[in-house]
Design a protein that fits this description.
about 180 residues; alpha+beta; Aminopeptidase; 9-stranded mixed β-sheet; 3 helices; binds coenzyme A
């Protein structure tokens, strides 16, 4: 497996990854307005496209996992803020269902966090499972005095501090705008 930066030609394969990874989750709660048998794309597919067009997009931090020349996973980090301080938002992260539980997601997480640390970013925030992300060093943001500016997200908001982090970095975490359209 290779972890490398996204290239322009990867975009259709990245769409496929998120469509497949998130479709089951989306089917449980979304698409109520659709005709029977028609499943709309999960919102994560459009989110990645909107992020690419947003000022918060960081081409250095959009990574794919590749196995035998096929993209099987993707993650991106985008420019966020904690009050006046810089931060990064992680997500979405997706892995093709057929290769999940094989270490691809962990490899993407470690590569993304290592790259963010090397770029002297102080912290990464995300919304996600309280069971999965602590293994990568994430803790509830509220423990560090960092809470998302959307109250509904507080319970699943987690932060991973990096080398450049200082305890004075507290306040409201603001995502790039496309996250608020989800
Ligand atoms: C979450 C995801 C990226 C993990 O990728 P992966 O390649 O399966 O991850 P890894 O193989 O590195 O790690 C698998 C481990 O994570 C655990 N795990 C995966 N998703 C989890 C979740 N939502 N909650 C709790 N644990 C989870 C697995 O149980 C497994 O644990 P184990 O090794 O102790 O059995 C992948 O499952 C996925 O694409 N899921 C659908 C999309 C999604 O939910 N993305 C995250 C929200 S943005």
């Amino acid at each position: 497996m290779l972890i490398r930066r996204e290239r322009p030609g990867d975009i259709p394969a990245i769409d496929l990854v998120h469509r497949a990874a998130f479709t089951r989750e989306y089917a449980n709660g979304g698409g109520q307005g659709d005709a029977p048998g028609i499943q709309a794309d999960p919102p994560e597919v459009a989110l990645v496209h909107r992020l690419r067009s947003d000022s918060g997009w960081m081409p250095t931090l959009s990574l794919v996992a590749e196995v035998r020349d096929h993209v099987v996973g993707h993650v991106c980090l985008t420019r966020a803020a904690v009050g006046p301080y810089p931060g990064l938002a992680l997500g979405p992260i997706g892995v093709l269902p057929g290769v999940q539980r094989g270490g691809v997601g962990s490899s993407l997480m470690h590569a993304a966090l290592g790259a963010a640390d090397a770029l002297d970013e102080p912290l990464v925030g995300l919304l996600g499972s309280l069971d999965y992300y602590p293994r990568f060093g994430f803790v509830p943001g509220s423990r560090l005095g960092i809470v998302p500016d959307e109250p509904a997200w507080v319970s699943h908001f987690q932060v991973r501090t990096l080398t450049a982090y200082e305890p004075g970095i507290t306040g409201e975490f603001h995502y790039p705008d496309p996250f608020y359209d989800l």
